[in-house]
Amino acid sequence: MTERIVVVGAALLDGGRLLAARRSAPPELAGRWELPGGKVEAGETPEAALVRELREELGIETEPVERIPGEWPLKPPYVLQVWTARIHSGSGDPKPLQDHDELRWLAPGEIWDVPWLDQDVPAVREAATRLDTGPR
Question: Where are the domains of the chain?
């Protein structure tokens, strides 16, 4: 059995909205939307990978808040795990630095206005339940 590789996704929540990122590559994924994130490297915790990936992809400093229960299969051997995360104050606005060409903050009524990648749909559904809970 092959070792599974965890891909972390961030449900970035801000003011009751969720950040969606539109893929610019690879071609088969371009134009579809996802939760930003990436692969966990050897010796790295998923939380540390999430912070690193968001710094690399969006140029922001973040803090993982809670893991959304469950994991979702991607192309083998990858599995997706998602954390809610918040942007540190003073970090600035996220920008699509790599792999994405557009970002959009979605209010609860707008979550399904974008064509999400199929594998992100269950995670987005879970993340959306956390949108209307107000401040912690």
Answer: 5-129
